[in-house]
Amino acid sequence: MTDATSEPKRSSRWGTALRAVAAVMLIAFVFTRVPLRDLRARFEHIRLVDAAMLVTVALVQWTIGTARWWRLFARLGERVPFRGVYRDLLVGALFNTFLPTNVGGDVIRAFRASRRIPNGYHAWSSALFERL
User: Fold this and answer.
1) Which of 47, 61, 78, 114 could form a disulfide with 120 if both were Cys (CB 3.0 to 4.6 A apart)?
2) pTM of the entire structure?
């Protein structure tokens, strides 16, 4: 007889498999819809310095947003790892690129954070407060 804690949950395996299939389908959809030759021609006109600056600005913006949300959690008495908040924010940003509004990404990141803290409503209220 095996210990139940030593095996991963069956539902988490299914969830991981479904996320992987969804990611592959999304990538396949994008590659079948985007004219790659046109994309390559456009990328050739971007200087490396400009691309590096864009990436740097995005990373700084996400880091500041993470710090702001992490401080809100600290004010609410929640001890949340900075890395976890950063991941939640990045996943929310990814959803914002596919959903019609930015609110969808906020819902996703609040949902993810609510599973990590004892008082899940703090994640929802802090995401709403930060949005305002």
Assistant:
1) 114
2) 0.65
